[in-house]
Specification:
single chain
Length: 71
């Protein structure tokens, strides 16, 4: 599903490693990716009213906390 993205001098994702999951692209270029519990974007999701990116990140953090709590 499309997400409105605001790009302001954002870095480019120039390569994607084997264990990296590309979560979003813009014009064929990766703009959001994840490797394990690390998520990166080359846009600013905080500048829109769409909470989906933050919810996704929150879900990653929640799962990590549950993993750590069980150790």
């Amino acid at each position: 599903e499309d997400v409105r993205a605001v790009f302001i001098r954002a870095p480019y994702i120039t390569r994607v490693g084997q264990d990296v999951e590309v979560l979003a692209t813009h014009r064929g270029v990766p703009v959001m990716a994840r490797q394990g519990r690390v998520m990166v974007t080359s846009f600013h999701p905080e500048l829109t009213d769409d909470p989906r990116i933050h919810r996704h990140f929150g879900g990653i953090a929640e799962r990590y906390v549950k993993e750590v709590d069980t150790v």
